[in-house]
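A note from the maintainers: we've had questions about how concatenated examples are separated. There is no special marker in the raw files; a new sequence line simply starts the next protein. For clarity in this README we add a label.
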Amino acid sequence: MIDSQKKWPWAAGVLAAFVMMIGVVAGFGTTASPHAAPSAQTPVIELVSEVSKAVAKARDYLAYTSFSKSGLIDQLEYEGFSSSDSSAAVNQLEADGGVNWYDQAAKKAREYREYSPFSRQGLIEQLEFEGFTSEQAVYGADHS
């Protein structure tokens, strides 16, 4: 019996070494794994991609109707973009010079006047309700 007890400890050592080698080959427990770098970068790539999609969607909307800044962000969120992606997209449009909120207010005022008569003050209030600032609303009413 003593001889059989001495034979098995080496088997446990061989098994442990074999399991460790499989782990190293598969990349478990190593920082130099080729699998570690892409997965660490993936969220950043997805975030940029979502903002880019939101920018494109915002441009599509602005091509056929007008929005206030907050209205456009809300519309992008309604489309399923996150709040942060929607805000980043609209901020990117502003930074690129792709939108002028005063012009948007004037376009929105014209859209309102096409289907309903508004007093100047009523139009200003409606534009403010849509999310335009007071200055943008006054500009929109006066330039529509």
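[label: protein 2]
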Amino acid sequence: MSITRTATRVFTAEDIDTCARLTGDLGSHHMIGLGDRRMTQGVLTLSAVPLLADPGVHMRDLSFAFLAPVYAGDTVTATVRLTESEDPLLATCEVSVVKGDGTTVLTGTGIAELSRALAGELATETVTEAS
């Protein structure tokens, strides 16, 4: 059984500036841009993924492929699909981030360690979805 969560986000130049200050990723493609378009940092693109920054989740393993750039002004929809594992406090994840024009910009997999409360909530959602 599995559950899926999605989130949509529009990235701004201010988001890119804040990410640059926090991470030190000051590449010219982020700060000046390519042509007239500023590209988001990879970690900023990842911030759109639901559950990755949830206080009840600790990511044990992540593997991502960045397939296409995301620019300031782009809208992305991030999807994470959690699948139960043998350990009720662990879940495998499949991640996808797609721009509004349908371009897949990021794919990946991971293993998430869940708090007991979140594991219970997800188990309830899984049972509800299966009904």
